[in-house]
Specification:
The protein contains eight helices and no strands. The chain has 130 residues and is mainly α. Helix 1 runs antiparallel to helix 2.
Length: 130
């Protein structure tokens, strides 16, 4: 079995894109974006090995819009489910980031708890027990 760092470059990029999408959704889901959440997200994205033809700031802008649309259309659960294959490239890291970003502002909202439950019980379930 390969570790995430040994994954082919395209797999790492797919995971990184899904991680950014998940993180944006999670920090926006409660309708309040705090400075501590933004700081955590910035630190996270600065550590990513980004190999896309789209520069990271442009990708983040696009993802913020996608996440807002998903939230506004009550489709956050589906949005998160759609990230499942790519997040399962490194499910432990994905869940760790999810836990940290939802706790960054000091408390987890009901919406954040619902998405964390979906992540652990459905989206990442196979990868977390393997």
């Amino acid at each position: 079995m390969t570790t995430p760092d040994e994954q082919p470059l395209n797999h790492r990029q797919l995971f990184n894109e899904a991680l950014v999408r998940m993180s944006v959704l999670l920090y926006q889901i409660d309708g309040k974006v705090t400075l501590t959440e933004q700081d955590y997200f910035e630190e996270l994205t600065e550590q990513l090995e980004w190999t896309s033809g789209t520069v990271l700031p442009a990708f983040i802008s696009q993802v913020i819009h996608e996440a807002r649309v998903a939230i506004d259309q009550n489709a956050a659960r589906e949005y998160l489910r759609d990230l499942g294959n790519d997040l399962n490239i490194d499910p432990a890291k994905a869940f760790e980031v999810a836990m940290e970003i939802t706790a960054a502002d000091g408390k987890r909202s009901d919406e954040e708890l619902e998405l964390l439950s979906l992540l652990s019980n459905r989206v990442l379930a196979k990868g977390l027990v393997a």
